[in-house]
Amino acid sequence: MAGGEGEAARPLLEKPHVYFDGCPGCAMDRRKAENPGIPYGLFFHTWIINLVTCLPISSLFPFLYFMIRDLGIAKRVEDIGFYAGFVGASYMLGRALTSIIWGILADRIGRKPIIVITILSSLVFNTLFGLSMHYWMAIATRFLLGFLNGSVGTIRAYAVEVCRPEHHAIGLSLVNTSWAIALIIGPAIGGYLAQPTEKFPNLFSIDSLFGRFPYFLPCLFISIICFVVLITSIWLPETLHTHNVQKKEDPHPESLFACLSDSEEFVEQDSTSTKNNRLLTNWPLMSSIVLFCITCFDDMAYSEIFSLWAESDKKYGGLSFSSEDVGNVLVVTGASILLYQTFIYPHIVKVLGLINSSRVATILSMVLLFTYPPMVNLSRPWLSIVVNIASMLKSCSVATVVTCSFILQNNSVPQDQRATANGIATTLMSLFKAVAPAGAGIVFSWAQKHQHASIFSGDQMVFLLLDIVVLFEFIWTFKPFLDVPKQSSSS
């Protein structure tokens, strides 16, 4: 344990900074005290780690339709959407089952081990997914990929702990931005590198490994990136405090101030369960989490349906797009989200406020969904232009509601409860995202079998159901459903 001489002379109530030798959390606190600037290196490391753990999610959509077709599980073309939905759901189901457990482990053994386990599991199971020869193998590897992903809440806590309080907003925004970048890079990798023997016959022969496993190349490419980031994680500093154990083993007289400070921490820890119970009865928090979950359900269902619909044949109400075409749309959409959140969203919220911004976004989203079925009647290049514009506006609408709900959640709880609140939101969100692709796949498969119904064609019914989900989002932005915290009421 180490403490400066000047600290001993401070009055008892000032709680001087005391750093314990061998405690990684204290080492990080000392580093922040000695370097008050923005930790660009650690921020970039955090950003790249979150990016690589998001890539396996975003890279799947451009080629999932064709992968299910080639695995031979679907007896008819109309059944492809049914089976594709469960592949998307398996990842989110696995993550929903373990999100809280990973959060508890991160608070017990440290942030770094959980981050390393997540990257390693992404490397292994993303590679195995690309080598899937059977449908059950694709389901199992995606489930384990989500089951062993403990970085969702951990990386957000880490981004806050590596910087001083005045830089917390920057750290968290960089974590969110890495997901926007993943929405650009992931679909590009999946769209351009899937089925390489068809797209690059001069480089990849049909008899090669990539001819036998046409969806292995994009997974391998992402796994190589994961391996590089995994190696760099050796130098990732830990931020969890472990000095409570050391204090019991070696209580020195000069640690009086630290002991007094730590005793207060123990009192706070004793009341943690009480605080957690209060979170579940905190309606401003829970109502904003419900809004967040409904929006994530909408986004996940839309993402699943859009790729399946765009790649299905026009006789089934689709657009007959290739995986590369869908990849192009998703790349443009991801780039638009990044630009929107960086330059446009802050001004919209400043003018309209959080609630009105969410309401306008949901109304725009409902209008856009009605325009999708008629797009099948367009021809290129107008079809590509219209699809790209609609996809950008739809995704930016979702980003608006999600970001507003994040702010409402943070404003609903004190700072010392935000990590736990984030864990609750992540678990519930993952459950909603697990149900969404499975449900969307079932509905899409049913719709393709009823494309020529007398009242609503199959594709019209699909987007009508999505509209109903968005309508629930819109209704939830009003009282008594959404209870806005006082500090957000003027926003």
From TrEMBL:
This is Major facilitator superfamily (MFS) profile domain-containing protein. PANTHER family: MAJOR FACILITATOR SUPERFAMILY (MFS) PROFILE DOMAIN-CONTAINING PROTEIN, MAJOR FACILITATOR SUPERFAMILY DOMAIN-CONTAINING PROTEIN 10. It is found in: Membrane. Residues 42-485 form the Major facilitator superfamily (MFS) profile domain. GO terms for cellular component: membrane. CDD domains: MFS_SLC46_TetA_like (cd17330). It holds the Pfam family MFS_1. Coiled coil: none annotated. The chain crosses the membrane at residues 47-68, 80-102, 114-136, 143-160, 172-194, 215-236, 285-305, 326-345, 351-370, 382-408, 428-447, 459-478. It is a multi-pass membrane protein. SUPFAM superfamilies: MFS general substrate transporter (SSF103473). Its main location: membrane. Keywords: Membrane, Transmembrane, Transmembrane helix, Transport. The lineage of its organism: Eukaryota, Viridiplantae, Streptophyta, Embryophyta, Tracheophyta.
